[in-house]
RNA sequence: GCGCCCGUAGCUCAGCUGGAUAGAGCGUCGGACUUCGAAUCCGCAGGCCGCAGGUUCGAAUCCUGCCGGGCGUACCA
């Protein structure tokens, strides 16, 4: 049994199709119909503006079209109590109250898989996120990108895409040398050798910690080794250890990448060179002032970009081109990059790059994540990266918990800047939406606990009679539960994970309100069974949605 | 200068692929625990959707111009 929304959409779609055929029009584009939930309940459970959008094609007035559409909706009486034409030409649908129970049966039947669908049809998608340079610990801005990337990937998986989560390690180039040298100098310092620590080196305390670690493990064996000989060890050591730390911090944050991809491996395999050659053959490379330029202006970038400098070194951008070429060679149909918004200037050149490599611009989707302002009690926390004074992601997770941190990162559109207040994140109140949602789940678990203690049946081979559910709040809950798959689908299509937390807040708000004015476990056995069945469905959806967010669904709190 | 993002209630933000009377949380004020969890609920108040034009049956949403804030404008990584 299909869900209410799907059935109605289908019915409407057929009716519009018939109407267009009768009028001799066969235009697929005019056939898309959309159902919205009106803001005002007097306007029905669902409404469509399709009659208005059809006025231009059919050249008739919208209310007439609306009537014609309604007349062609077959089997509407089974599902609908009433259909109205309203305002300039809206069609408002009032679902039969007894039809909503189908939603609950559907949820019980699908259980964990409720919300899972097959929009993607197995299409391979890669989500690349975090990809912070392995030169220091992750900070809170990386956390936001991590949460968004991780959850977006989860959502796409739930929608039938075959998704890999990938981390690009910038382990090549001068910054790694600088990193190694920073460690080397701290090592000497720890041995009591006077050093001069340059400003452009990595000054954070974590480098001193690492230096002590090297000292413990290796003793003073590098003390008298010439710098050029010692550096490779220190570079590799620093890079590996910092990357380990990043991995651990992500793990503590609930994020696991499937693939860790090394930039150096592209250089080692000659892929950077090959990519430049491929672009040369395609005619997108020219030489000027001793450098090789990529003609990104051919695809709308504001200027061309250097890929090989006059000194013969390839640029970072060249490696990025090779990396993206490599992604498509690994057969990803769509590649999603999650970048800090401070990199937005790179979007046109990267988009140009994938097109020059023979892909559609839309094969690369870039999500820009705005910066995070870290606050404590409303006051900004100093965040100077160079001085190494930043608050790390790990510190934030340790202080406020992974659930609160993730939820807060996700409760905002990614292109909106985010104020992250450590005190608010720790508050166990409604200031903090994560507890509001988790509390509902714990509450429901508690109800089931009590039910079991009282010996009330609360698992069902066959659905109970749902006719006792007819209160407005009960119908509203069922309707909201029925919207969940649609919410997941739209989050996937629009690449907007924040839709899930907002949906959860709505659902939970409705539930809490209902809970406060009704008892689930009561004298009336039939009513109790029906309400428990509803409650179980709410709990199921909460679990599924929180699972997508990587936020726990506690039984007690 | 040019480019991108943002400007919605006192605060933090949804709504933006055009739809009917613009929403939520916080904060203020006032109510609800002998009951399955009060980390909850109920109610009151709060708006020229930055400003000005345009597009059309209809604009917070699309277009143009301004104002204000953030970011970016390398043969750096």
Automatic annotation (TrEMBL):
Record SMART domains: Arg_tRNA_synt_N, DALR_1
Domain DALR anticodon binding residue range list: 437-557
Enzyme class: ligase
Domain Arginyl tRNA synthetase N-terminal as annotated: residue spans: 6-95
Motif mapping: 'HIGH' region: 132-142
EC number of the protein: 6.1.1.19
InterPro entries cross-referenced by the UniProt entry: aa-tRNA-synth_I_CS, Arg-tRNA-ligase, Arg-tRNA-synth_N, Arg-tRNA-synth_N_sf, ArgRS_core, DALR_anticod-bd, Rossmann-like_a/b/a_fold, tRNAsynth_Ia_anticodon-bd
Keyword ATP-binding assigned: yes
Main location: cytoplasm
Name recorded for this polypeptide: Arginine--tRNA ligase
Biological classification of the source: Bacteria, Pseudomonadati, Thermodesulfobacteriota, Syntrophobacteria, Syntrophobacterales
């Amino acid at each position: 049994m299909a869900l209410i929304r799907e059935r109605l959409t289908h019915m409407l779609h057929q009716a519009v199709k018939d109407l267009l055929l009768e009028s001799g029009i066969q235009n697929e584009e005019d056939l898309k119909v959309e159902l919205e939930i009106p803001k005002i309940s007097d306007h029905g459970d669902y409404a469509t503006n399709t009659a208005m959008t059809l006025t231009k094609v059919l050249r008739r007035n919208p209310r007439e079209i609306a009537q014609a559409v309604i007349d062609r909706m077959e089997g509407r009486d089974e599902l609908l109590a009433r259909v109205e034409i309203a305002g300039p030409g809206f069609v408002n649908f009032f679902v039969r109250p007894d039809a909503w129970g189908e939603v609950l049966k559907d949820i019980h039947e699908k259980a964990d898989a409720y919300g899972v669908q097959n929009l993607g049809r197995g299409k391979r998608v890669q989500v690349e996120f975090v990809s912070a340079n392995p030169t220091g610990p992750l900070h809170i801005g990386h956390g936001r990108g991590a949460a968004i990337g991780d959850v977006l990937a989860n959502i796409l998986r739930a929608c039938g895409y075959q998704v890999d989560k990938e981390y690009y390690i910038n382990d090549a180039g001068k910054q790694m040398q600088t990193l190694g040298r920073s460690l080397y100098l701290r090592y000497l310092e720890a041995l009591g050798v006077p050093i001069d620590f340059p400003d452009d080196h990595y000054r954070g305390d974590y480098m001193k910690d690492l230096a002590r670690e090297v000292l413990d493990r290796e003793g003073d064996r590098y003390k008298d080794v010439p710098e050029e000989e010692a550096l490779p060890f220190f570079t590799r050591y620093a890079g590996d250890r910092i990357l380990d730390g990043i991995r651990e911090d992500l793990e503590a944050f609930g994020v696991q990448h499937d693939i860790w991809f090394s930039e150096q491996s592209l250089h080692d395999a000659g892929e950077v060179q090959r990519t430049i050659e491929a672009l040369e053959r395609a005619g997108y490379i020219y030489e000027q002032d001793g450098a090789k330029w990529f003609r990104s202006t051919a695809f709308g970038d504001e200027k061309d970009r250097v890929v090989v400098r006059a000194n013969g070194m390839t640029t970072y951008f060249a490696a990025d081109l090779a990396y993206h070429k490599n992604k498509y060679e690994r057969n990803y149909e769509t590649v999603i990059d999650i970048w800090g918004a401070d990199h937005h200037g790179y979007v046109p050149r990267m988009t140009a790059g994938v097109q020059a490599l023979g892909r559609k611009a839309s094969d690369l989707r870039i999500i820009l994540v705005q910066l995070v302002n870290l606050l404590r009690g409303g006051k900004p926390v100093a965040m100077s990266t160079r001085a190494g004074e930043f608050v790390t992601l790990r510190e934030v997770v340790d202080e406020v918990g992974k659930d609160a941190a993730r939820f807060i990162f996700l409760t905002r559109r990614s292109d909106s800047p985010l104020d992250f207040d450590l005190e608010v994140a720790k508050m166990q109140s409604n200031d903090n939406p994560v507890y509001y949602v988790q509390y509902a789940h714990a509450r429901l678990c508690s109800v089931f606990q009590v039910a079991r203690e009282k010996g009330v049946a609360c698992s069902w081979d066959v659905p109970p009679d749902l006719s006792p559910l007819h209160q407005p709040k009960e119908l509203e809950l069922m309707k909201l539960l029925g919207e969940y798959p649609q919410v997941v689908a739209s989050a996937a299509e629009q690449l907007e994970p924040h839709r899930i937390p907002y949906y959860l807040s709505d659902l939970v708000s409705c539930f809490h309100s209902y809970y406060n004015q009704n008892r689930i476990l009561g004298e009336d056995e039939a009513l109790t069974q029906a309400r428990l069945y509803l409650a179980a469905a709410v709990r199921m959806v909460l679990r599924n949605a929180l699972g997508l967010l990587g936020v726990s669904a506690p039984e007690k709190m």
